[in-house]
Design brief:
The protein is mostly beta strands. The protein has 5 helices and 19 strands. Strand 2 and strand 3 form a beta hairpin.
Length: 364
Amino acid sequence: MRLNFTSSLVIVSAFTLLFSASCKNDVEIFAPQSDVTLVYGLLNADDSIHQIKINRVFQGEQAVDQLAKDPSLSEYENLKAMLYELNNDGFGNYDTTNQWTLTEKTITNKDSGFFYYPNQKIYELQAKLDDTKDYAIWIDKLDGSKIVEGKTELIRPDGDILIKPFGLSFLGLSLADDNGPLDKVLLEMKMPINGKVMEVFLDFSWKDEYHDGTTSGLNTIQYKVGTYVVSKIPIDANDNIQITAELNPTSFYEFIAAKVPVVPDGSNIKQRVPEDEPLNFRFVIGGNEFNTYLEVASPSTSILETKPEYTNVENGVGIFSCRTFQNKISKMSKKSIVYLVDGEITAGRKFCNYSNSTDPNYCF
């Protein structure tokens, strides 16, 4: 691990110097500017298009929020960036057969935020990567300075990540019984090869149907089950590293109630219709370097601790690592739907029961 104390934002404070009228000393407040390259790239073997952000750390004498709005301070006008596939010879040499040039591209849909938007420059390549190989990014700023580079493995899922519970597309996920929400639901998951950290979400989707016969688009809310870090990273198919997590059904129903408002009298909403498979377990898996980057970047819990910035980029800052995604859709069990419709937590939101035609709240 390499720790770099160069911040990705160079914040320069202005100081007021109080001297007597006779003082002739001159003080140089601002240090000479230097070009520091910032790289942010997460490779995914499932992607056919890979996008990497390459910027310079901006510097200046204005307020930092003003400097961040100026793309000329952050973006390079001229550089050469390559992605190399590494040989599996034990030395990680560049494979000159499998190499790709990253093409400069301007995206036009960047969300509003601290930095300039909606247009931002990125670097892109189209290729199907081999998840059994390692890859290196190589950046030449064409100014005689040192090459900026970083290396990463790729994450390789070995089958479905979710092992238990079974029967999610047949019987559905059981979140409640006749007495209300269950105390807990145990989830068993398998960490993919080269995975270190896993975030688990449970999404819930439905459509609003109106009295005039029209329906809304698909509504989806995203409930976070938790974040899980393994102590040992699986490096091949023989490593069976499992994660056990607890899903709290009461908390999940409360989340739905908080995100979906009660339908008032006179509303145009006739009923809310869950999808046939309204649940989607969503897994986001990151590599070891990415997890370290997140852990170091997290806020300190002690006023005595000053955290440096982590980077695995040589002659630069930022992160070059890997991640992947997987989904597992699921039905809801019949009793779970009944509680969704008229249980005390979610009652009044006009969810209908699509699984039982004899239910007075059957979706019609």
